[in-house]
Amino acid sequence: MSGTFSTYQGKLLRDAAAGHPPPCPCDGTELEDAAAKVLAPGPFGYVAGGAGSGDTLRANRAAFARYRLVPRMLRKTQPELRTSLLGKEMAAPVLLAPIGVQSIVHPEGELAVARAAAETGVTMIVASPASYSLEEVAAANGDGDRWYQLYQPDDPEVCLSILDRAKRAGFTALVVTVDTPRFGWRPSDLDQGFAPTLRGIGAATAFSDPVFRARLAQPPEQDLDAAVRLWQQMFTGTGRSWDELAFLRANWAGPLLVKGILHADDARAARDAGADGVVVSNHGGRQIDGALAALDALPAVAKAVGDELAVLLDSGVRTGSDVLKALALGADAVAVGRPYLYGLALNGQSGVGHVIRSVLADAEVTLGLLGAETVLDLGERHLHKIGG
Ligand SMILES: Cc1cc2nc3c(=O)[nH]c(=O)nc-3n(C[C@H](O)[C@H](O)[C@H](O)COP(=O)(O)O)c2cc1C
Ligand SMILES: O=C(O)C(=O)c1ccccc1
What is the distance between the alpha carbons of residues 138 and 360, in angstroms, rounded to a whole number? Predict the structure, then answer.
C-alpha cells in the first residue's frame, strides 16, 4: 500500500531514524499544545479560543469521537484520495479553511501558507481579512488552486472591485461567509484586550483597494483609526439577508459557496440563491457557544442538498480518520483550520507543509486500512455511532 501521500509516512520514519524529527508533531490533536509553547498568550488565545465557555469547540471534537470507523479486511485496496469537486479534479478532498490575520502567529503569515499549499497540491481558501493583499497571497501561491473567502462589503462598488481583483489574481471560487456578521463573545480576547483588527491587521486587501481608499478623507497611512472604523463598518454588520447573495451571484461567474451553514433549510436557501456549494461549519466554535457540532449538522444538510450542491465541512477536523468520517456522512470535502496555523506558528512554511502532508498521508493510509479504494466508496456502512 503506497499511494500518493502515504509515502510521507516512510519518509518521516527514515528521517526520524536518522536523527531528524519532524518540524512539528504528527498527531494533529497535539499541535495546539505545541503551539501554546511558542506563541504569546494573546495570539494563542485568539487562535485556539472559542466562543463563551468553549462548549461548541469541545462539541466539534466530541462529535467525531462519537463515530467509530468499521473496517473490512482482505480487500486488495489501492487507496486513492483523488476526487473531483465542483467539476474540477482535486488531489484530495481536503482544503485549507480561510483564516484571517495570520501574521499574528508568523511574520510570513498567508504567504508561507500559500507556498505550502502550492507545494502539496491542496486548495487554499484565502480569507478576506488576510494580513497580505489578495494579490500578494496569489503570487505566493503561483500555480496552486486558490479560492477567495469574502466578508461581503455593504458598499457595492468596493465589493465589485474586490471581486474583480480576485478574478484577475486567479481565484477560482468564491466562498461567502455568513456566520460572522460580528465577532462572537470571545472571552480570551476580551480578557487580554487582544484585537489585531483594531490595529488594521487583516485590512491589507481593503487598504490597497482604490475604491475603498477613495471613500476615506485621509489614506490609512495617515489616519489608521478612521480607516479601521470604515473597514469594520463596511465588511461586517448584522443587517444582512439572503437577498445580498443575488448581487454576488450576478457578479461572480465561477463557483460560489456559502460558508457557515448548520441547518438544512439554510442550505436550501443557499441553493435557491444560486450557490454551487455550502460549507457546513460553526466557524470552529468561535461564534455561538452552545451551537451544535458541525459534524452533527452534516447529515441533514447532505440529505437536503447533497445531490445538487457541493457539501463541505469544517470545524474540528484534526486527523485522517476525521476526514473519512465526514466524507462517510455525506461531505464531498473537508477544510482544516487551526492545525495548519499551528504548523505555521511552529515552523513557518515547512510546518504548514508537514501538517498538510500528515493529514493527507493519515487519510490515505486509513482509507486503505478500512478496505476502501476511493473516497467515493465511503458511506454510512463504514460508521458505527456510539449510543445511536
Ligand atoms: C484565527 C482564526 C481566524 C479565522 N478567520 C476566518 C475568516 O477570516 N473567515 C472565515 O470565513 N473563517 C475564519 N475562521 C474560521 C475557519 O475558516 C474555520 O471555519 C474554522 O477554523 C474551522 O475549524 P477548525 O479550526 O476546528 O479546523 C477563522 C478561524 C480561526 C481559528
Ligand atoms: O476570527 C475569526 O474567526 C474571523 O473570522 C475574523 C474575522 C475578521 C477579521 C479577522 C478574523
Answer: 23
State phi, psi for 221 to the nearest 5 degrees: -65, -25
Radius of gyration for the alpha carbons in the chain, expressed in angstroms and rounded: 20
User: 274 C-alpha to center of ligand 1: Å?
Assistant: 24
Task: List ligand 2's pocket residues with C-beta within 6 A.
Answer: 100-101, 129, 180, 197, 202, 283, 286
Average pLDDT over residues 298-322: 98
DSSP string computed for 291-328: PPPHHHHHHHHHHHHTTTSEEEE-SS--SHHHHHHHHH
> For residue 153, with 0-12 CB atoms within 10 Å meaning exposed, 13-18 middle and 19 or more buried, which class applies?
buried
Residue nearest to atom 6 of ligand 2 (CA): 100
pLDDT digits (tens, 9 = 90+) for 199-234: 999 999 999 999 999 999 999 999 999 999 999 999
What integer best gives the mean pLDDT of the chain? 97
**What's this model's pTM, rounded to 2 decimal places?**
0.99
Ligand number nearest to the C-alpha of 260: 1
Q: Which atom of ligand 2 is nearest to the CA of 177?
A: 5
Distance CA 34, CA 147 (A): 29
Q: What separation in Å is there between the alpha carbon of 8 and the centre of ligand 2?
A: 32
ipTM exceeds 0.90: yes
List domains and CATH numbers for the chain.
7-251+315-385 (3.20.20.70)
- Give catalytic residue positions: 283
Which ligand 2 atom minimizes the distance to the CA of 236?
8
Task: Name the β-bridge partners of 374.
Answer: 80
